[in-house]
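Now for today's protein:

——
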Amino acid sequence: MRYKLAGKALLALLVALVAWEGILEVTTIRTTGFQQHPELGRILNPGLYVNGQEGYGITKIYAEGAIAQPFPDPNETAAARKAEYRILFLGDSYTEALQVGDQVKFFRQVQTRMPELDSRKVMTYDAGRSSASPAHYAYLADFYKKRVDPDAVVIQINENDLKDLYGENASYYATKDGDSYKLVFNEDFVSRNAVAAKLQAFYGLLRLSVVRVGSDHLQKLLEKDEAAPDDTKSPDFTPQAGDEQLVSWIFGILKEKYPKLVFVFLPQIDFQSLDGEQQPGYFEEMAERTAKEQGIPMLNMRRDFVKAYQDTGLPAYGFSNTTYGTGHMNSSGHDLVSKAVANYFEGR
């Protein structure tokens, strides 16, 4: 009798887990898993990625980590290539934009708002990747130039992106090399999720939604007391003597490697305290100054985001299932960025 009861309990648990897995995959999280690409490093597997933990978005992932739209046909004809004006979008999770649907992502909206440029059909390509930094974009420049052959490149950066240049807990980072710096590809990188990184043998289980949700909750508990130092506006943040030199170096590398480079800067904004004038962030000021010195156009979204909030009451960041004003860009933010980018190219 005891064994029968234990068997029934185990069966009931398995049935519940299977049912809960299906519910979570539709409503909360469904990952495609990851693969190790010989040139790109750790990228998402092709498939449908469902994210309902922040906002709600269903994203189609294509080969080589392309987001929402595949990279160009590698066997295309010369005539087909000449008929397109290609814009490559690089960035971190704000460009990857798993929080919103494919048609909402700002790179796709640019293509919709600007169907033609220089008498050619505009095609936009998204190579955004969570936790990426300018070191990532610089290291992979040769791959993207060969694979996408862009006519222009838009790189999205934010306050913590530049801070993350130092982070060795990433696929790519910069390190001191004599009087200059060098780029490093960390082939052993697994995940910034401490739970996943420590349990590498079980990393594949994160593809199961029930395991993923539990792991994410545990990770948030572990990070609860360590969240403040990640914010460059936190009193715990300490600028380093070489920050300016490093930012100048990486901007110079990006300008050298990418044609018709444009930066889009996403600022940190306290949408709850807009009565007083907010000061730009530490890296925001540095990025604006350095981009100007090196002749790199930079679209800082601060004014657009603040004005839109004052006019509509809707912040550019946050969702109804998280906290408005914080986190990743919502549809309002993507709309504003797409307008700024399209206006820049049409007015150049």
User: Anything to note?
Assistant: Residues 225-229 have pLDDT under 50 and may be disordered. The chain is about 40% helix and 20% strand. The longest strand covers residues 84-90.
